[in-house]
Write a structure and sequence with these properties.
single chain; mainly alpha; about 0% strand; elongated
Length: about 120
C-alpha cells in the first residue's frame, strides 16, 4: 500500500495517541516506576490495536472488502492489520518513548516528595 491521503490521517492520529495514552494512563496508576511500566505496556497495546484499526479503515476507504476478508480468514486478516499497525510504530514509537521519558521526571518528583515527607514525619 502506498502513502496516500488514506494513510496519513491514521498515522497522525496514532502520533497524537502516542502522547495522550501514556499521559492519561499515568494519571490512573501510582507515580512509581512500576506504575509507569504499566502505563507504558497498556499504551503500547492500545497503540498496536489502534494501528490495526487505523489501517483497516485506510484499506476500507481505499476500496478493500473487509467483510469478505474477515469472513474468509479472520485470524490472518486481523494479524495482517496488526502487522500494519506495528509498522506504523516507526512513527509513533519515538513519540511514545519521548512521552514516557518525560513521565520519568514525574516519578522522580513523587519519589523526592515521599522522601522529604518521610524525613519530616519519620518512618511512621
Amino acid at each position: 500500500m502506498e502513502w496516500s491521503l488514506a494513510t496519513l490521517p491514521p498515522i497522525a492520529v496514532l502520533g497524537v495517541l502516542a502522547v495522550l495514552c501514556p499521559l492519561a494512563l499515568f494519571r490512573l496508576v501510582r507515580r512509581t516506576y512500576a506504575g509507569l511500566a504499566i502505563a507504558a505496556l497498556l499504551s503500547l497495546t492500545l497503540l498496536l490495536v489502534a494501528g490495526g484499526i487505523a489501517f483497516a479503515w485506510a484499506y476500507a476507504i481505499g476500496g478493500a472488502d473487509l467483510a469478505a476478508a474477515f469472513g474468509t480468514a479472520p485470524l490472518a486478516t486481523g494479524l495482517m492489520f496488526l502487522g500494519r499497525g506495528l509498522s506504523a510504530a516507526l512513527v509513533w514509537g519515538p513519540i511514545l518513548a519521548l512521552t514516557l521519558f518525560a513521565l520519568t521526571r514525574r516519578v522522580e518528583e513523587a519519589r523526592g516528595e515521599a522522601l522529604k515527607h518521610r524525613e519530616l514525619h519519620g518512618n511512621g
